[in-house]
């Protein structure tokens, strides 16, 4: 049985369809992310699961029970809001006890429960602190504790790291993953930041314009994207627009705009004559000679140093190509002529994305 | 969220609004409109007609009082703007951070004091046996006590005093929003003080100027205490005429016609002001 | 800038003179409450508190003057009722205009602001006329004597309520606008009922605004003269009593004493409301 499942959920606001025919099943105890650019409908989907919006059609079930007719305060789905929404007029303890009081739990049980959950998020004894005395990371943990004390079936997290600075965000990613393990609760995490989704999740759904483009484990999304959108949104890629010239078995030949041909693998239903794009990951490229269609020649424009993710920028005709250069080997000199090569199965061809 | 609950709460929230605006604003205004259109022809016998208005226009005393009230209100508004703008500008732009709040609060103090106390203060200062007159005599500057009350200059000064805060407050809040870099850029581009004032400061402060002028004008035209206490028996202020018709003469029909005339007239001035400056009531008056 | 030194000093001097102009009548009204004289004027006869506390004439002190005390009581009574009513109505209006969508919202919003720009005297007479129309109608048709629709405290309350509600609505709506709606959603999400959300999350957030709206309404009611004058019956509030005294009996320092009490009272309340609005900083 799934902790949360959506079946063909659609939500329209007037003539605008925010979420279109979305289905998903989240197994118990897993960390599931929805990744998409802002405005793709991910927040609307989450608000429907929490009960703040009603789907236009489709069904949402929690632990197998349909919840579409239940008001938000009757659903056992708890939510960590984008700006956390901790109650500023209450102490930490009162914030955490809020849901328990709403449930009319006996007073004698509330205090120990609050103390226990504060222990688990690593902030024991902070019941009497005011919200404005907490740091960003502490607020984050209190917001999670406030939900987890209610033992929800699913915890929804709506870009909760968005408001933190970069350093803290990196740290909280790991901490969130650990908390999820510790509580063994199903997490549904919404983000537009691919690295958050890839690092923490068991499964990721990539969402675009109200639809799911692909659902799968992070590695599958990265290595075998199902569409040009996923290939472009997850991880970095060099993109060469062109026209599909011919397909022979596995291999396909693309005439790249601005001259040259590239051989790669067609990864969707594109047919010869279609406008397509070739996606090349920087780490699939190396400096060195290659065969016809699996290399491009150009000149080194500049070096972008960034430790293990350093890049070399190569200009080839109208295109600027990023080549991974993890060891900064010094194989090329600025302004020098180089050849960039790859193997054909690493060049993925998708239908041209609408611009 | 259930739709029915939303509808129910909308209706419940609407009730007080409708009762308030309907019973205390709209119907009473229609009420005086209705009263102003009837004329007494005998005991408890009325006819409808414009006689009250005809009488009003035909009687120079009434007509002139309205015109005088209008002109003086416009004069007071302009004076309040001229006198208040430098002060607002000083508070918003020149004063240091700390003294700014204090100055602003000081500006607000008279706001919290009743009109009556303020007018009374002026009486204590200005009348023949008052502080200023006595002090001047003591110092030998004048030979005899002088009466400084009961003239138009005093009335205008007192009215400016009463309303100037309502000019300064919106001005300060708009001017505070102005980025100093705008002024620096203006000077930097070679503008003289006057051009910077005319081309940058005034246009920027326009919403504040308009809302300040509207409030000031309405308060002046509708004021009662200051002109009567400082202007004495012959202040000929229009609200006094309304009071006389209603309370002294018990002639509600013509009093209503006076009231409607004042309302129409002031509304027209406000409307014309808004039209000329391209502002709207909701964005200017309701801002603070 | 060079040469602007002098200008700046002239400017400063102007501002100083302006503030002198602001405080001088208040000072004059206040100081002479303590002059041991029968008239609020020079020369200074020495300091006294008689005009506040003396229990017998000719210098009958404010706190022994029954008419003035009666007026003070009436003002207080009217102020509290009007402030409570207008805060309640203002809260409803704030929720209506900040949270709800309905047709003609823009036009109705303007209608809500309009009472502020109607001269107080006209609000007064229009309510007087309308109330008596209703009362006459009830009298003729049903033989009902609705005395509360005749000039008196209930009409004064209605008259002041009619424009104070605009002020309270604007004050409360400004605060409600700053409210983060996700706090309510968070409370719902944690299982709270709508009523509980309102009582535990939304209203506590609004409390400072409700308080200062109440204070402002009370003060404006206390000081109001124009609207009140048209609607007043035999139970006159302090401003009307003081006006009567001024016009009929001439001014004596007891009126200065009233002024002092009014200034201190409203100054204190205003300060309180400013403090209540100030956001509390973490220590």
A few lines on this structure:
Chain A: One of its GO terms (cellular component) is ATP-binding cassette (ABC) transporter complex. The complex is a heterotrimer of chains A (355), B (288) and C (283). Chain B has helices at residues 3-36, 51-58, 60-94, 97-108, 115-126, 131-138, 152-176, 180-188, 193-221, 225-231, 238-248, 252-277, 281-284; strands spanning 38-42, 45-48.
Question: What features would you describe in this structure?
Answer:
The complex is a heterotrimer of chains A (355), B (288) and C (283). With 355 residues, chain A is an alpha+beta fold. Chain A has eight helices and 20 strands. Chain A is elongated and about 75 Å long. The two termini of chain A are 40 Å apart. With 288 residues, chain B is mainly alpha-helical. Chain B has a single domain, classed as MetI-like fold, CATH 1.10.3720.10. Chain B has a two-stranded antiparallel ribbon. In chain B, strand 1 and strand 2 form a beta hairpin. The mean pLDDT of chain B is 82. Chain C contains eleven helices and no strands. The two termini of chain C are 42 Å apart. The mean pLDDT of chain C is 85. At the B-C interface, helix 1, helix 3, helix 4, helix 5 and helix 6 of B face helix 1, helix 3, helix 4, helix 5 and helix 6 of C.
User: Most extensive interface: pair and counts?
Assistant: B-C, 83 and 81 residues
CATH class of chain C: Mainly Alpha
Order of helices and strands of chain A: EEEHEEEHHHEHEHEEHHEEEEEEEEEE
Radius of gyration from the alpha-carbon trace of chain C, in angstroms: 24 Å
Total domain units of chain C: 1
Distance between the termini of chain A: 40 Å
Order of helices and strands of chain C: HHHHHHHHHHH
The low-confidence parts of chain C are: none
Q: What is the share of helical residues of chain A?
A: 10-25%
Mean pLDDT across residues of chain A = 88
**Coarse shape of chain A:** elongated
Main β sheet profile of chain C: none
Q: What does the oligomeric state look like here?
A: heterotrimer
Total helical segments of chain A: 8
Strands across the major sheet of chain A, in which order?
Answer: 6-7-8-3-9-10
Q: What percent strand of chain A? A: 35-45%
Give the CATH topology of chain C. MetI-like fold
Number of domains of chain A: 2
Q: If you consult CATH, what is the topology of the largest domain in chain A?
A: Rossmann fold
Question: What structural category characterises the helix and strand content of chain C?
Answer: mainly alpha
Domain ABC transporter (chain A): 4-234
GO biological process, one term (chain A): quaternary ammonium group transport
Protein name (chain A): ABC transporter ATP-binding protein
GO cellular component, one term (chain A): ATP-binding cassette (ABC) transporter complex
């Amino acid at each position: 049985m799934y902790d949360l499942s959506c079946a063909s959920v659609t939500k329209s606001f007037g003539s605008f369809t925010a979420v279109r025919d979305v289905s998903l099943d989240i197994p118990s105890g897993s960390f599931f992310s929805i990744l998409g650019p802002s405005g793709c409908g991910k927040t609307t989907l989450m608000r429907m699961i929490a009960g703040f919006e009603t789907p236009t059609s489709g069904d949402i079930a929690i632990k197998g029970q349909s919840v579409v007719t239940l008001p938000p305060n009757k659903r056992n789905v708890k939510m960590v809001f984008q700006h956390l929404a901790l109650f500023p007029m209450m102490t930490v303890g009162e914030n955490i006890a809020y849901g328990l009081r709403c449930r009319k739990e006996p007073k004698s049980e509330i205090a120990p429960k609050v103390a226990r959950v504060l222990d688990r998020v690593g902030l024991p004894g902070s019941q009497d602190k005011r919200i404005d005395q907490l740091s960003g990371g502490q607020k984050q943990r209190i917001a999670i504790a406030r939900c987890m004390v209610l033992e929800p079936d699913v915890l929804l997290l709506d870009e909760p790291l968005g408001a933190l600075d970069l350093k803290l965000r990196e740290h909280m990613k790991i901490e969130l993953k650990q908390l999820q393990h510790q509580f063994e609760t199903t997490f549904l995490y919404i983000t537009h930041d691919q690295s958050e989704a890839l690092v923490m999740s068991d499964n990721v759904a990539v969402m675009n314009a109200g639809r799911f483009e692909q659902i799968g484990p992070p590695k599958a999304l990265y290595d075998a994207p199902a569409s040009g959108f996923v290939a472009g949104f997850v991880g970095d890629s060099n993109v060469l627009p062109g026209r599909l010239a011919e397909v022979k078995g596995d291999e396909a030949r693309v005439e790249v705009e601005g001259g040259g041909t590239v051989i790669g693998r067609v990864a969707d239903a594109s047919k010869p004559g279609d406008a397509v794009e070739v996606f090349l990951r920087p780490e699939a490229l190396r400096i060195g000679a290659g065969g016809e269609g699996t290399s491009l020649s150009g000149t080194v424009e500049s070096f972008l140093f960034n430790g293990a993710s350093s890049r070399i920028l190569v200009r080839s005709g109208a295109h600027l190509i990023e080549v991974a250069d993890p060891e900064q080997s010094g194989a090329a000199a600025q302004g020098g002529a180089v050849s960039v090569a790859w193997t054909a199965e690493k060049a993925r061809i998708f239908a041209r994305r609408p611009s | 969220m259930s739709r029915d609950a939303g509808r129910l709460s909308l209706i419940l929230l609407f009730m007080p609004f409708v009762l308030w605006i309907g019973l205390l604003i709209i119907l009473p205004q229609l009420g005086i409109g209705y009263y102003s259109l009837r004329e007494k022809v005998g005991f408890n016998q009325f006819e409808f007609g414009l006689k009250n208005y005809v009488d009003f226009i035909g009687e120079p005393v009434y007509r002139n009082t309205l015109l005088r009230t209008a002109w003086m209100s416009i004069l007071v508004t302009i004076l309040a703007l001229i006198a208040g703008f430098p002060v607002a500008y000083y508070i918003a732009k020149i004063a240091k951070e700390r003294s700014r709040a204090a100055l602003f609060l000081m500006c607000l103090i008279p706001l919290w004091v009743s009109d009556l106390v303020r007018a009374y203060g002026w009486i204590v200062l200005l009348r023949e046996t008052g502080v200023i007159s006595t002090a001047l005599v003591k110092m030998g500057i004048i030979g005899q006590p002088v009466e400084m009350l009961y003239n138009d200059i005093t009335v205008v000064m007192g009215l400016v005093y009463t309303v100037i805060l309502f000019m300064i407050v919106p001005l300060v809040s708009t001017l505070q929003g102005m980025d100093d870099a705008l002024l620096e850029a203006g000077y930097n581009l070679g503008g003289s003080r006057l051009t910077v004032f005319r081309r940058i400061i005034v246009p920027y402060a326009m919403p504040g100027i308009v809302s300040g002028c509207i409030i000031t004008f309405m308060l002046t035209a509708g004021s009662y205490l200051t002109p009567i206490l400082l202007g004495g028996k012959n202040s000929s202020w229009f609200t006094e005429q309304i009071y006389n018709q209603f309370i002294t003469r018990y002639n509600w029909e013509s009093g209503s016609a006076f009231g409607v005339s004042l309302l129409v007239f002031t509304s027209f001035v406000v409307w014309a002001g808004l039209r000329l400056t391209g502002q709207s009531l909701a964005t200017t008056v309701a801002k603070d | 800038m060079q040469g602007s030194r002098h200008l700046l000093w002239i400017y400063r001097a102007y501002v100083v003179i302006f503030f002198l102009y602001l405080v001088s009548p208040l000072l004059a009204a206040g100081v002479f409450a303590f002059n041991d004289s029968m008239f609020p004027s020079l020369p200074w006869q020495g300091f006294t508190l008689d005009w506040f506390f003396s229990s017998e004439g000719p210098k009958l002190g404010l706190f022994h003057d029954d008419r003035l005390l009666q007026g003070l009581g009436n003002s207080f009574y009217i102020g509290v009722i009007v402030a409570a009513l207008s805060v309640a109505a203002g809260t409803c209006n704030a929720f209506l205009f900040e949270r709800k969508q309905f047709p003609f919202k823009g036009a109705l919003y303007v209608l809500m602001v309009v009472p502020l720009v109607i001269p107080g005297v006209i609000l007064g007479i229009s309510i007087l006329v309308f109330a008596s129309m209703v009362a006459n109608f009830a009298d003729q048709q049903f033989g009902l004597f609705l005395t509360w629709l005749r000039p008196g405290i209930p009409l004064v309350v209605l008259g002041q309520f009619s424009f104070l509600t605009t002020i309270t609505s604007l004050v409360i709506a400004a605060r409600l606008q700053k409210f983060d709606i996700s706090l309510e959603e968070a409370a719902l999400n944690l299982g709270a009922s709508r009523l509980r959300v309102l009582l535990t999350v939304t209203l506590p957030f609004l409390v400072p605004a409700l308080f200062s709206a109440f204070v402002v309404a009370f003060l404006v009611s206390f000081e109001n003269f124009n609207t009140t004058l048209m609607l007043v019956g035999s139970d006159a509030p302090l401003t009307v009593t003081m006006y009567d005294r001024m016009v009929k009996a001439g001014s004596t320092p007891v009126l200065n004493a009233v002024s002092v009490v009014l200034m201190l009272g409203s100054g204190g309340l205003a300060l309180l409301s400013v403090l209540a609005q100030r956001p509390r900083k973490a220590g």
